[in-house]
Amino acid sequence: MTSDEPVTALPCDERVSILHNGRLRAASIRRGDVVAYDWGFHQDGAEHVQRTFVLLDEGLQVNQPVLFPPEQRGWWYRDLLTLAWDGADRRLLRTQDLWLDVIVGPPDHPYRLLDLDDYADAPADGRLSPDRAAEGLRRMQRFLDRRLNRRHDTTRSRPEFPPPLVEELRTAELPRDRRLLD
Questions:
Q1: How far apart, in whole angstroms, are the C-alpha atoms of residue 50 and residue 45?
Q2: CB of 39 within 8 A of CB of 50?
């Protein structure tokens, strides 16, 4: 199978819904520790579809922004999230952006941390407890060490980024049911 062929849903894929930032509801599929969903938007006279992957074991989501400039196409954007499953059947995953982001380019390009000031303001103004802020920083450090930092490796590669399940789901056929809530 070439990378251009769509991947069909596997029997182990589970259909779930995402509610992101309390506004975007999207049907999605869960494969292992990754939930993948598409969402759309209209900008500059064109419709765009953005595929996003929630990494459940890391509490973050990644995507390759469709509106990145041409010289950054294929780069990744990573958001720190809170995650909460609703109900016993765990069919609705609520995600909330926690301001702290990373842009990940090719292996020979340094990654870029964004919005540290916004993250610092959140506990200061009560939007985030000090304990949750500390936990978010720990998750960020684990992500950087596990996925991006090469330590003493001199090769121009990254240790498993993007994760294999994300690579699998990049071309998967996903449900198209999505809407913005009022």
A1: 16
A2: yes
